[in-house]
Amino acid sequence: MSSKKLPAFFAAFCLVWTCSLFAMQIERNFPAGIKRGKMTVTEYAEIAIDGKIRLLTPGLIIYNEDNMKQNVGSLDVRNVPVFYKQNEYGELERIWILTAEEARLQLPKSGS
């Protein structure tokens, strides 16, 4: 392949690869024992779920709609639907920001 065709080939490859990523449907499996709520991040990077400020664990992981991890400081959301998991002290451990399709799902059944 000539060096003149290489940039065009690379650009086409990148375009096809990017489009295929968006076309993939990522089905997320949510654990049992999660709760549903509406999350807002305050101007002080505090998380409120259903209007109540929540305590966070140091290892809190927030997954956005694309299942990518985000930190609380990079979020600017108001009243978005989420699933969340708390530890035994009521602190938030995991948060999943839901897509429109996921927001229509019922909560997973709790294990006995």
Q: What do you see in this structure?
A:
- A 7-stranded mixed beta sheet has the order 3-2-1-6-7-4-5, with no helix packed on it.
- The chain is built from 2 helices and 7 strands; from the N terminus they run H-E-E-E-E-E-E-E-H.
- By secondary structure, the chain is an alpha+beta fold.
- It starts with 5 loop residues before the first helix and ends in a 9-residue tail after the last helix.
- Helices cover 20% and strands 31% of the residues.
What are the main properties of this structure?
112 residues; seven-stranded mixed beta sheet; alpha+beta
Question: What is the gist of this entry?
Answer:
The protein is α+β, with helices and mostly antiparallel strands and 112 residues long.
Mean pLDDT: 83
Strand count, sense and barrel status of the largest sheet are:
7 strands, mixed
Low-confidence stretches: none
Helical content (DSSP H or I, runs of 4+): 10-25%
End-to-end separation in angstroms reads 62 Å
SSE blueprint and pairings:
Layout: H1 6-23, E1 35-41, E2 47-49, E3 52-53, E4 56-63, E5 69-70, E6 80-86, E7 92-97, H2 100-103
Parallel strand pairs: 4-7
Antiparallel strand pairs: 1-2, 1-6, 2-3, 4-5, 6-7
